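Bench notes, afternoon.
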Amino acid sequence: MEIMTFNIDEDKRNLVDDKQNFSIDFHDSKYNWLQARQYEESMRQVEVHVVHGNGSPVDLTGMNPVFEGWMPEGLYRIIDAKHSVMIDAQNGIFRFDFPAPAFQVAGSYKQAFFRLMKDGMSVTTLEFSLDVMADKVISGLVPSDYITPFEDLYGKLKEYLVKFNGDFDAAMAQWKKDVADLITELNADISGINLTITEIKAQLSSLEDKIKADGLATVADLTNMLNPIIDRLDKLEAKEESSDLLTDVGGGIRDIFTGQISNMKARINPDLVNIGMINDVHYTDRDSFWGPDNDAETGITHLLNIGEVSEKLDFAVSVGDNTDDNWGDNHFSIKRIEDYGMTWFTALECPSAVLLGNHDDNSSHAKSSGATGNDYLVPDSKFIQAYRQNVNLFGEKRNGNSNYFYYDIPNKKVRVVGINDYENPNTLDSDGNLKYPRINTSVITGAQLKWLATDALNVSAGTHVIVMLHCPIDGTLKDNPTEHCYNHDVLKQLLEAFKNGTSGTLTSSTTDFPVNVDYSFANKGTLIGVFAGHTHTEDYQVINGINYVLNLNSVGCAGDARNRILYFDTKDEDSWSVIGIDTANKKVKLTKFGRGTDLDFTY
């Protein structure tokens, strides 16, 4: 084992002219050096002594030695924080076992040194000579950057595959999210700590100058100086507790939500089956409807809020009107739904799905302008991709690539049924206009009703079923939920038949979307409730023994277009729910985030 000694006070070298392409001359014997053969692993060790100018040891207690190097040819870097062993911290001695990736490339390192890290601060040693001799006999490592925190994640890919039962797409999605989290954590921690330290130093320097000038600081002076620092530390602590997810999306989780997020986490009962529900986010950049200054564009950050509690959820659903109309061609609408899907499936740490609403496909523009082509409408193929309907990320069951689905929560005897009440075809009328625009028309087809009757509602004894959809079923509210409702009455009849355990045939009252479906429920079903959004109000009704629940909108405003109440940039901007289900006692506890009133009921 070679011994290296670094004097952090007196070791110095001259600056170089070319700061990017410099090489260091190690001909002077006072410099430390190491030689190794390519592909050697754990065979080259150095014992490092760090001393002050007077020869006394540097206390390394709490320090983490990191080897950093610029490999021969200057193409690859190595940052290794895991191969150091502290031998005698108080006497400034540690050992470093060089890993094989340090010897990937033959030649002399452009630069190699140790960085000693503690509490976000660091001091570096002088460079040492590191030569890698070529190995012509064997070949092995492929040259690449080697940064140990990321290497640890690479090594866990196999564990991710096991966790997701061999589902490669799900494993990769989780792994990519963890990589993004790591980058965010490293960047946020260092910048936050350094900024705080800089502020403290500035304040202390100001205080020192005042004392030197014989101006004694008063209690008020100290309070004025310390309060901003304390406030920033409190915010940093709150942010650290509330979020390390996707801090780049929409500006990240905003300070107005951090307190509510912590509160929501504390209110979720882990003994219940917990299902997250968010609806009517209306993520958009048009400013003429939801308030000025593109306020609704902040809706994408609401997904980060629910994502922060998602580790406590068994399942979550975004229940339609995820994005808003563009009032132009479909290109911006397509981009928004892609952004929405990517953020949703990345931010959430639980199984989840996304349903359609009446605004998502931009049909309001087609209806108002008389546009007739696909230049304005978002085709269903885009939703299939953005909402992952073609991959079944979490084992949910669909009818082909359908937006509707059901998901059985493992070991909980709860089935979540997601209904698409916007199966509208892009049919044109005799004038060439869109005949069934989603913006004001809700369509449920016979194919979905048959699937519900024979598959989704065909559950084993003791299974509790919760139903979620965007538009409330016609007949469950005081007013008609939209201008045209096709087969809502048939869906209501089917759910009542499931609850009561009856048999019969479903037929449609309209010829536009015919229905002829036989159903047979031998036993009474356990229906938790039917949960919808769309109306931007909250409500609860019991009709023929079925609980119907309306959930508030997530977009930060309320009221109709003539009488808006805006909540943007306040703690009430966002609103969504966690549905807590007590299957043993058949009780539901609806816990609201932001605006909204908690609700308890039985089923």
